[in-house]
Design goal:
Elements lengths: L7 E4 L3 H12 L8 E4 L7 H5 L3 E3 L2 H6 L3 E4 L6 H8 L9 E4 L6 H6 L6 E6 L9 E7 L4 H12 L2 E5 L5 H28 L4 H22 L3 H8 L5 H11 L2 H16 L7
Parallel strand pairs: 1-2, 1-4, 2-3, 4-5, 5-6, 7-8
Antiparallel strand pairs: 6-7
Helix pairs in contact: 7-8, 7-11
The structure holds NADPH dihydro-nicotinamide-adenine-dinucleotide phosphate and (2S)-3,4-dihydro-2H-pyrrole-2-carboxylic acid.
NADPH dihydro-nicotinamide-adenine-dinucleotide phosphate binds next to helix 1 and helix 4.
Protein name: Pyrroline-5-carboxylate reductase
Family: Belongs to the pyrroline-5-carboxylate reductase family.
Enzyme class: oxidoreductase
């Protein structure tokens, strides 16, 4: 794998920013010294500074020193950040990547320069261990920059290029999705405790069962129902449990939750 040779600023090193930083270093895409992590309260980044990461409270200085700038603050924090970094932004030098939900490439340019190349990326927290599902979209970035950004995210998981108008849908399905599947695993383990296992063993069993189910789809490239048909013996216990879950709205509640998350993702940012 070709290591990146420039500098990457991650502005807003909270949950997703730090997950990205850890993943890029773990994958060997960049060394800690090539990353500059910012947040207002840098005392919270002390452990990263000790590991050799660049740490700064000055966003403009981080941008001035970087080739790739990752915007990883909350949507409602973005306008103030863009104002701070505008004097240090040089469109011919930096490519901007925004992971902020509900903020378009055009919104970002409207707070910066019209010629600034902006690529939106929607990763999830599994990026810290190289298992993200990251969707990538742009409306103006050069093909070579899109390829570099895809290469970067491919080192830490799977990448799908999408149209920008599907970005809020990607947020709900893939980024929020991590929490949805985790809650399903937690619920399964709670069921396991009710039927006789200790909490720790129930959780371990539920996690491995979920991983195996996901891997069946990934490795066999089959459809979930095809694999479900192999589990549900006639008059058996699986179909009894599965149908009970469906009578209680299992699929329906997941679908409704994803639709609501997508709506909310599209409404998180206020332009002014
Ligand atoms: N969490 C997730 O799974 C995902 C989140 N996203 C998106 O990523 C973005 C961040 O989300 P998340 O990581 O959950 O949120 P966090 O609140 O964990 O992280 C945001 C960070 O930004 C810092 N921050 C706020 N203002 C500034 C500023 N002016 N300059 C520098 N740093 C600043 C905050 O630290 P401090 O207060 O110290 O400044 C905080 O650590 C959001 O836009 C979200 O939509 C996208 C995909 C997945
Ligand atoms: O909950 C949120 O708003 C962010 C966006 C996707 C995941 N976390």
């Amino acid at each position: 794998m070709k290591q990146f040779t420039g500098k990457i600023a991650i502005l807003g090193s909270g949950n997703i920013g730090l997950s990205l930083a850890k993943g890029l270093v773990k994958a060997g895409y960049a060394k800690p010294e090539q990353l500059i992590l910012t947040r207002r309260n840098i005392a919270n980044l002390a452990e990263f500074a000790a590991l050799g990461y660049g740490v700064d409270a000055d966003n403009a200085a981080a941008v001035a020193a970087s080739d790739i700038v990752v915007l990883a603050v909350l949507p409602q924090q973005l306008n103030q950040l863009m104002e701070q970094i505008k004097p240090a932004t040089v469109p011919a030098k930096q490519v901007f990547i925004s992971v902020a939900s509900g903020v378009s490439c055009a919104d970002i340019r409207s707070k910066s320069y019209p010629e600034l190349e902006v690529i939106r990326a929607m990763p999830n927290t599994a990026i810290a261990i190289g298992q993200s599902m990251t969707c990538v979209a742009t409306d103006n970035a050069a093909a070579e920059h899109v390829e570099e950004v895809c290469r970067m995210f491919e080192t830490v998981g799977a990448v799908v290029k999408i149209n920008e108008d599907l970005m809020t849908a990607a947020t709900a399905l893939c980024a929020c999705g991590t929490a949805f599947f985790l809650r399903a695993i937690r619920a399964a383990s709670q069921g396991g405790v009710e039927i006789g296992f200790h909490a720790d063993e129930a959780l371990k069993m539920a996690v491995q069962t979920a991983k195996g189910a996901a891997d069946l789809l990934l490795q066999m490239k089959s459809h979930p129902e095809q694999e479900i048909d192999k589990v549900t013996s006639p008059k058996g216990c699986t179909i009894a449990g599965l149908n009970e879950m469906e009578h209680n709205g299992f699929s329906s509640s997941l679908i409704k939750g994803i639709k609501l998350s997508a709506l909310k993702a599209g409404a998180l940012y206020t332009k002014e």
